[in-house]
Structure to design on (469 residues):
């Protein structure tokens, strides 16, 4: 009787199994699979293999040794507890006999039919949901010659190319007339904030993102920041932008970038969000420059941390609380007069509920519960704030001082075995302790924004008294 082939698992199951081995139970591996499968092709391992059968294969001392390979290979992984596992290439299968081949053919046909049915059902469900979503948000009725849409924005006659540093009226940037929006887009709520489109002059690009760009602009001789969408072929992109604008229009806080208005011409796809201009740039760029110039003093760092905390106090204290969901050093702007302010509410959400789901944000700043199952409360913002405190301490991008892959970082953060590094020789002990509390694995063990803001105010007061004395 032939010995049955041992069971095999994919890479996400290796990751999940390692979490079980370390004593931390993962309730669902769906989010783990979603994260890791984007980075690595699956490898397999024999869960039934005894240590002796690993033979001469190299023993992987860390989980990341398994994760480093993008292809199937042989390696043994020894977890913190329990028997080691062998990561193996799939076992060779002997040629089937004619009768076995016939049976296998019938099985394959049956399985294939089942798969076709399942795929058809899933496709039908997805199709129905997409149609319902498109009816809600509307789509762009495309011109018959849709190739012009690939050209993006172009300079109108007399205008200037996008990369030029010469001031250009917003009206000089036109889109090929190949698409128009349905009237179903909700523009009515924006009318009270509408600015004259031709009064906005784009000076030079400041930052570029996946969905939009930020420009230095001028409005009535006042410097402003102007956020524009990249070429959008569906109304959904614009509707999401409208929601960001409407949210920002409701916020009035000295520690949140001030909203000035919105402008659009005949096409909402050319909509522009206008905010105050912050002359110091974003915090990440300032920290990068400070590593060589050392011009960002600890007093300024403490003030910056306090301003961010005060901004979070405001957002989390609203009647309908706002969770930023993408708090990071790139989304903190500095100004020589007004200090630090929180910006970029593109993925922020208002909520009356206790929690939200769906993992949004940059993973190096994301809380363990968000990486694990997309679970959001305001405490997820506090974890991100703790990562920013670590950045203020070391002036480094989180985890760049460690030789770990992205998947290795994610796996360790999820189970609480990895946190951003603090410079304990240069940072005040109370500052390191505050950051450590914000980075607690359990969300309910992290301090509130109000508690952190109070502690920072007290520390700044004592520092000021020391300087005076």
């Amino acid at each position: 009787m032939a010995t049955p082939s041992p069971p095999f698992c994919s890479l996400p199951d290796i990751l999940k199994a390692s979490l079980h081995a370390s004593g931390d139970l993962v309730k669902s591996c769906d989010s783990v699979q979603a994260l890791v499968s984007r980075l690595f092709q699956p490898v397999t391992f024999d869960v039934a293999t005894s240590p002796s059968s690993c033979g001469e294969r190299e023993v992987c001392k860390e989980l990341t040794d398994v994760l480093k390979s993008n292809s199937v290979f042989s390696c043994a992984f020894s977890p913190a507890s329990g028997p080691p596992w062998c990561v193996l290439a799939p076992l060779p299968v002997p040629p089937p006999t004619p009768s076995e081949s016939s049976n296998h053919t019938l099985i394959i046909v049956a399985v294939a039919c089942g798969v076709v049915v399942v795929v058809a059902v899933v496709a039908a469900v997805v199709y129905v949901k997409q149609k319902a979503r498109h009816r809600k948000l509307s789509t762009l009725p495309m011109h018959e010659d849709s190739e012009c849409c690939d050209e993006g924005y172009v300079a109108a006659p007399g205008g200037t190319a996008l990369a030029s540093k010469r001031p250009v009226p917003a009206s000089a940037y036109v889109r090929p007339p190949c698409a128009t929006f349905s009237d179903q887009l909700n523009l009515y709520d924006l009318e009270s904030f509408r600015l004259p489109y031709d009064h906005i002059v784009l000076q030079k690009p400041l930052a570029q993102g996946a969905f939009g760009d930020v420009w230095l602009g001028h409005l009535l001789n006042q410097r402003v920041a102007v956020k524009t969408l990249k070429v959008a072929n569906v109304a959904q992109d614009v509707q999401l932008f409208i929601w960001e604008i409407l949210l920002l229009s409701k916020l009035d806080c000295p520690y949140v970038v001030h909203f000035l208005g919105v402008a659009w011409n005949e096409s909402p796809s050319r909509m522009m969000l206008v905010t105050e201009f912050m002359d110091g740039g974003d915090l990440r760029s300032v920290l990068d420059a400070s590593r060589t110039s050392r011009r960002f003093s600890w007093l300024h760092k403490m003030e910056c941390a306090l301003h961010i905390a005060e901004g979070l106090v405001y957002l989390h204290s609203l009647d309908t609380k706002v969770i930023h969901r993408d708090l990071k050093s790139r989304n903190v702007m500095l100004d020589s007069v007004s200090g630090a302010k929180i910006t970029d509410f593109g993925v922020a959400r208002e909520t009356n509920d206790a929690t939200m789901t769906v993992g949004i944000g940059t993973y190096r700043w994301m809380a363990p519960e968000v990486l694990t199952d997309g679970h959001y409360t305001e405490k997820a913002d506090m974890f991100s704030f703790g990562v920013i405190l670590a950045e203020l301490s070391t002036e480094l991008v989180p985890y760049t001082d460690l030789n770990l892959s992205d998947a290795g970082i994610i796996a360790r953060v999820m189970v609480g075995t990895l946190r951003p590094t603090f410079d304990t020789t240069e940072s005040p002990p109370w500052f390191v302790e505050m950051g450590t509390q914000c980075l607690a694995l359990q969300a309910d063990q992290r301090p509130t924004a109000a508690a952190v803001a109070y502690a920072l105010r007290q520390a700044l007061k004592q520092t000021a008294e020391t300087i005076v004395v």
The CA atoms of residues 320 and 351 lie 6 Å apart. The domain at 151-276 is CATH 3.30.200.20 (Phosphorylase Kinase; domain 1). The longest strand covers residues 200-208. The first helix runs from residue 11 to 21.
